[in-house]
Amino acid sequence: ADTAGGMTDIGGVDMDDSTLEEWRSLPGWDCYEVSDKGRVRKSVSVTPHGHVRKCRVLKQDFLGYGGYARVQLRRDGRHTSALVHRLMAMAFIPNPALLPLVRHLDDDRRNNTLSNLEWGTPADNEVDKVRNGRCHNSNKTHCKYGHEYSDINTVVRSGSRKCRTCERQKAVHGRRNRDYELVADEAAWLETMVDDYVSVTS
Fold first, then answer.
1. Could you tell me whether strands 8-10 and 13-15 are parallel, antiparallel, or unpaired per DSSP bridges?
2. For residue 187, what is the enclosing H or E element?
3. pLDDT digits (tens, 9 = 90+) for 144-161
C-alpha cells in the first residue's frame, strides 16, 4: 500500500493535491489498485513487447447497476464491469463471515467513503433502509387488511414487519385446510371400503 495525492474528479468531486490516499492491490486483479477514497487505477505494467505502461486512474460512470459507481477492468482481452464500493470492501474491509454484499450505511449509493461501507446481508440492507427513512413499508401504520402496526400486533422477521393478527389467521386457516384434507381422505377411504363390501356381498 502507498499514499499519493492528485487532482482527479470522482463523481463530480475534485480531490486536491493535499488529499492523501491509501492504495491497495485489488484481490484477484494483479495489475489494479483501489484507494480508500474510492478511486481505481491500473498500476505500472510492462507489455510482452517490453513497453512500459504508465499508472492511470480509471474513469467511473454511474449508468446502470442502480446508480452505483463502476469501472471497467480488463484481463486476457476481456472487459468486466466492477462496482467501486465492492472493490473497496474487498481491499480494505475484512469479511471473515463471508457476507454476500456491501452496504452503504447511509443509503447514498454515491457515497463511497470507506467509513460508509460495511459487509452485510439483504436483511441488514433492509434495516438500514428503515433507519434512514427510505423504506416505504416502514411508514405504513396498518397492514393491507387494516390491522394496526402496534407494538403488540407487530412481529419483525428478517428486517421486515409482519402483522401478528394476519399471521395467526394464516396459521388457523392452514390448520383448517389440513383438517379438511384429512376428513376428505377419511371419507374417500370409507367410501372405498363400502364399495368393496358391497361388491363382495352381492
1. antiparallel
2. helix 164-201
3. 888 988 888 888 776 577
